[in-house]
Amino acid sequence: MGEERLQHELRLMTTSVDEKGQLRVPVDALIEVLDKLLRLARQVLTFHERGAAGRGRQPTWVRNATEWHISKLESGSMKVQLEVPQLEQVLDAEYEDSWAVDLRSMGSAVDVTFKMIKNSLRDPSSVISDSPLLKAMGKMGRVIEEYGGLTVTRSGQQAPWDVDVQQAKKLRAMSLERRPQVERFLGRLDTLSLSRDKIGIQMEDEVVIDGRLTKGFGENYRELMGKNVLIQGRISRDIRGRMKSVKVQWIRKATEEDRRLWTTASTIQTALPLPRPGVMAHYIGSIPAYDSDVDIEAMLKELD
Question: Under DSSP, is residue 49 helix (H, G, I), strand (E, B) or coil?
């Protein structure tokens, strides 16, 4: 690619020294930081185009934007110099959406990535629904914390991007939290507050989950009071996987078939593998937000 590239310098802030008083920064450390940064940058750029629901093969422009060249890397040094494509040249003219216009003005993939890191530290909800992005941020936070912080400067840029140890720890903590995802589960509609648009859902293990309804929708569920229901919504969990609350999308009366397919417990081990055919009682019921009911039904038929 013949486009003009931007010059970036990444500098670790480690104070670790060896027995001779020399800084202990092996080349492997810088390579590890670059690897995590590259993976995070690809997630960040894809997020800008597709949002949290976007999955699949990475766009060509994302791969082009992360074709970075190392121009200087020395053993024992705390810094590495990169040549990075300009987004203005990488993004094709066909990209006319507002997100593309914004990216063109941001410089490079490195700049966009660190801007998102800073935004996420201020407002974690900005990336709350994108698990791959959160995981990549957590891994980046781990290596930054391990090596004492990171400062990134760009030629012609007045203020550097910097992430200190405390911010790196926060990135790691964000990635460990269970983020809301769309799920279906069974329970008994225990309470209903029309004035507050809230419900209580009693699970099989006697735990009552708080549910938040769309304003004015409570009246639709009055006839389901005290009955077993199937609920779909965005569930918040604690780090042990226990349900804390659900933002309800819809509720309907449960059927026998529902009991065979969907969970009735307040704790769901989302890391469990998909069940073997014929073992649908263990199916978790986790639904990626970008799948439709048709997609889900097709998947269930393949498993059954």
Answer: helix
Q: What is the pTM of this model?
A: 0.56
Domain boundaries, the chain: 5-176, 181-303
Q: What is the pLDDT of residues 70-129, one digit of tens each?
A: 888 766 667 888 899 988 888 876 677 667 777 888 889 999 999 889 888 887 766 655
Q: Which fold has domain 181-303?
A: OB fold (Dihydrolipoamide Acetyltransferase, E2P) (2.40.50)
Q: Is 153 in contact with 9 (CB distance < 8 Å)?
A: yes
Please tell me the distance from the alpha carbon of residue 186 to that of residue 170, in angstroms, as a whole number.
Answer: 34
Largest CA distance in the chain: 77
Give 288's DSSP letter.
-
Fill in the amino acid letter for 41. Answer: A
Residue 217 has a pLDDT of 82
How far apart (Å, rounded) are the C-alpha atoms in residues 118 and 137? 11
